[in-house]
Amino acid sequence: MKELLLVGIGAGDPDYITMQALKALRRADVIFLLDKGPAKHKLNALRREICARFLDGHTPRFAEGVQPEREREAADYRASVDELNRDKQAVFEQLIDEQMADGEVAAFMVWGDPSLYDSSIRIVEAIAAARGDLHYEVIPGITSLQALTARHRVPLNSIGRAVEITTGRLLAEGWPQGVDSVAVMLDAKDTYLRLVGQGLHVYWGAYVGTADEILIAGALDEVAERIAETRAQARERNGWIMDSYLLRKSGTARD
User: Fold this and answer.
1) Integer Cα distance of 18 and 141 in angstroms
2) Rounded Cα gap, residues 171 and 185, in angstroms
3) Which of 38, 79, 230, 253 has the fewest other C-beta atoms within 10 Å?
4) Which parts of the chain span the membrane according to its record (predicted)?
């Protein structure tokens, strides 16, 4: 039997990692890393830093696979995601077959939390269901949204009100009904610009918890263009962008 751990490591600051996550990593014989190309080497460097700093001398070996890319402008978004997950599953299975011996424990160090806009759980569940020699566990981590609201010193929701967590693609279809707070992830097209003039307050952050962290907050009408410009410059400078934001209807910004 082989054991696979999906370990949430938090959103950027090595100190975000939990004691439960560290205990899990100290059990690992091998840690799987997905290579996302030169622009994102910092992400795997952070993973290695966490192991070097916090594993108390435990030295698991590292094994790398190539991260498949999703077709960004695909006409059928769901089909493109399904294809990406099939490709990722093949990489996961190759690592499990070739880099693990029977009885060993392996870990994926998942950015943020494995349950939030990450397909690792679905992929590993499918692998485990198709074979009889794999047990897996999920260890939660601090999400980028938790880190974002902490850095801005605001609650995620208004008192007694719901908050919706969504994507830029879905936000482009319109403001969700029944909520006054919307947390947005995976917005590659600056969707917030479409909502200027609707009386919203925004709390935006990029690379939260890292040395490259950028934070901007204020009335959306006043800061939307600055966020867009800052975001474009940061993406150009670093070769990638990892950001999220909280939108709240005016009058409830601090409730």
Assistant:
1) 7
2) 10
3) 38
4) none
Does one domain contain both 71 and 165? no
Residue 254 falls inside a structural domain: no
120-149, pLDDT tens digit by residue?
999 999 999 999 899 999 999 999 999 999
Beta carbons within 8 Å of 89's beta carbon, 6+ residues apart: 123, 126, 127
- DSSP letter at 60 equals -
**Residue range 53-69: mean pLDDT, rounded:** 91
Mention every residue, 6+ apart, whose C-beta is less than 8 A from residue 6: 107, 108, 110, 114, 120, 121, 124, 136, 137, 138, 139
Residue pair 148/213 in contact (Cβ under 8 Å)? The answer is no
Statement to judge: residues 209 and 96 lie in one domain: no
Which CATH number belongs to the domain containing residue 216 in this structure? 3.30.950.10
Domain match, 150 and 234 both: yes
Q: pLDDT tens across 179-236, in order?
A: 999 999 999 999 999 999 999 999 999 999 999 999 999 999 999 999 999 999 999 9
Contacts of 159 (CB under 8 A, 6+ apart): 255
Q: Is residue 77 very low, low, confident or very high in pLDDT (cuts 50, 70, 90)?
A: confident
C-beta of residue 182 within 8 angstroms of C-beta of residue 208: no
pLDDT at position 71: 66
Domain limits for position 244: 144-249
How many structural domains comprise the chain?
A: 2
- Residue 127 and residue 221 share a domain: no
